[in-house]
Fold:
Amino acid sequence: MLLAIKYTAALPRAIMRIVDIREVTINLKGGVSNAIVNFHKHTVSLVALISDQFSEGKPVVGFGFNSIGRFAQGEILRERILPRLAEVAPEKLVNRSGSGFNAEALAQIAMQNEKPGGHGDRAGAVAALELAAWDLNAKLLGEPAYKTLRRHFDVAESGVSIPVYAAGGYYYPKDSTKRLNDELLRYQELGYHSFKIKVGGYELREDIPRIEAAVAIAGCGDKIAVDANGRFDLQEALTMAAAIEPYKLRWFEEPGDPLDFDLNRILIESYSGSVATGENLFSLMDSKNLMRFGGMRLGKDIFQMDPGLGYGITEYHRILKALEEFGYQRKQCYPHGGHLINLHLALGLGLGGCEAYPGVFQPIGGYSAQCSLVDGKIAPSDAPGFGLEQKQELYPLMCELVN
Ligand code: MG
Structure:
């Protein structure tokens, strides 16, 4: 292993430093599609924060990435963000006790000279760095990141596992419905009980048999969520909602454009099932607008904001506090992502659950073999940080980045 399991060195005499920050673009595997995009050409920025702390003769390194379903942000990192961090005095990046790095300060410095609003790709660039700081801090403490998050944000202990569903159910270029069946059966064999499938990529009359096939495999509608990825206009969303209402599905995800809060509200007024959205809102303010204008129901609808797409965990926690001020529960949060970082996030912050991508989006998607899945709940391993070193396909890329 490149990175140590436990940090055993004595406390540093001087201020600890980040001595290098590296980034690389990695490709995602899998020629699958939803109603809007094909993921074949999607990329991710993998970032390494290399500290001057050593454990078992090797530098302690924090890794992060900017989630799934978009693109790497190497240019923004190289041209705008990394030069700002290179200029900052080391003491600005350490936490008050000097025992780790200050993820909030790091994100703040990364955003110097950036105007408010217009949260686009830079939100993912900052996120990759901010998440790497949490990985680094947890490794310095020799503990899984969810424990570091619980302590930092003062979240009550709530066990070591969290509900998980398998996200997938994509459209395939050939034999799509048969492959959907095979895919869900494969997830079931792995131990998943609940699933999410895509809708809106075909005509309604072709989507309904896909939903019925998925419900038949799961055994009931409340184990199947459907995701339109923002594909529908209002009329189409209402038509789909009316068509799926009898199946009593777990939720109807991103029916329309993620920023069309009016559409979301009108749809919710006419649909008795739960609606899920938020993965394409990248900031506290965008999320607040969903809370203000989107019609989301207390205790019922699902929020899916993803720290990997929206400035990292510090911003995500601000969103959680806002949700609670509006009267929502954090158990209504199921962050988009389906990877180890968001598993630690969901467990550490006491969210409702998380998704998994067991079959697609490698090397980022899904969990490591050391995670345990029992009765529809998943537990991370005891590996320090996010445990990304245990992702077999990802580990060689991490080594390449830091060696
Ligand atoms: Mg989605």
